[in-house]
Amino acid sequence: MLDYPAAWFGLFRPRDELAAAVAELLVVGFYGANARSPSARLLARQVQRGQVGGVFFVTQNIGTIDELADLIRLFRAGDNQPLIAIDHEGGVVQRLTPAHGVRRLPAARTVAETLSPTEARQLYAKAGRELAALGFNINLGPVLDVDDPENPVIGRPKRSYGTDPERIAAYAESFASGFASAGILCAAKHFPGHGRSTSDSHSGVVDISARWTEAELEPFSRLFVSPHVPAIVMTGHLCLEHLAPDGRPATVSAPIVTDLLRQKLGYRGVVMTDDVDMDAIRHLMSRREAVVQALAAGNDLIMIKNLFGYDPLLPDRAVRWVRKAIAQGVLTEAQITAAVARVRAIRRQAWQDRA
What we know:
Elements: H1 5-9, H2 17-24, E1 26-28, H3 38-48, E2 54-57, H4 65-76, E3 83-86, E4 88-90, E5 93-94, H5 108-114, H6 117-134, E6 138-139, H7 165-180, E7 185-191, E8 206-207, H8 218-224, E9 232-235, E10 238-239, H9 254-264, E11 270-273, H10 279-282, H11 287-297, E12 302-304, H12 314-327, H13 333-351
Parallel strand pairs: 1-2, 1-12, 2-3, 3-6, 6-7, 7-9, 8-10, 9-11
Antiparallel strand pairs: 4-5
Helix pairs in contact: 2-12, 2-13, 3-4, 6-7, 7-8, 11-12
């Protein structure tokens, strides 16, 4: 930790309501797959100092079951209980294995082809109990994208429930309600629709303008009026020219997040970005611009993997970026206040049964 003394000792940590609010909007990644990782230890300290509100695990963070348990204990130590997120869709997008005490879930397309929505809910409820037992409280799923078998990131890995919006929404509701029954909040993705894209946003911005239609909104709109509205919707790094002619991807686009998702579709829950360190955003703008523009667009939770260009002072910098953006009129305190109110509501929901 002596490599990062300013970060470790919090030498530049501001102490006011705005700083506390910004902290709750950050969901941050870390290096390493065990509790000896300096990055993980620093992030855990930042969580307990109230500088970061959530953490997320990627493949690089998954070691043995004992190492995983140690990491989660590290993040949950103390009074500030973070949101702890992981991808647990099933199929190829599942970070945990039977070696961690969890079953392998079928891919979404396989679930829709072999199980009824009721049977799928039972499957997901069991998976939710396994995930909760490990200490997670957010699952970055379900996928509501429309299926196209040629799509390299959704279709080929069978991550979609199908092509019929009603069918997609029915199985997504089974996913959300099943996991919710175990206390796991879900993040429906990838708004406004990744299914008919021809490329992967991990490697660059995906322009969906040529093939996207409003039918791709229907699974989301149907799920939003179901008895099990997801606590979170995740925006994708997807460009949609006729809605955002400035070329900004949905993640940082007010016309898509605020005008379409919140106002037209009436979604009232938490909106979360996909990882703003992905190449799709990283090649367009700085991390500072991404954080500010994502908040200005209407997102509540900002995911930052913080692996490429690792910054131990990231939480402090984020507060300074937001302060400056407010001073410049790019953001308002009212936007931050509204975002943190939504996030605090799901935080209470995530921990109410785990006192």
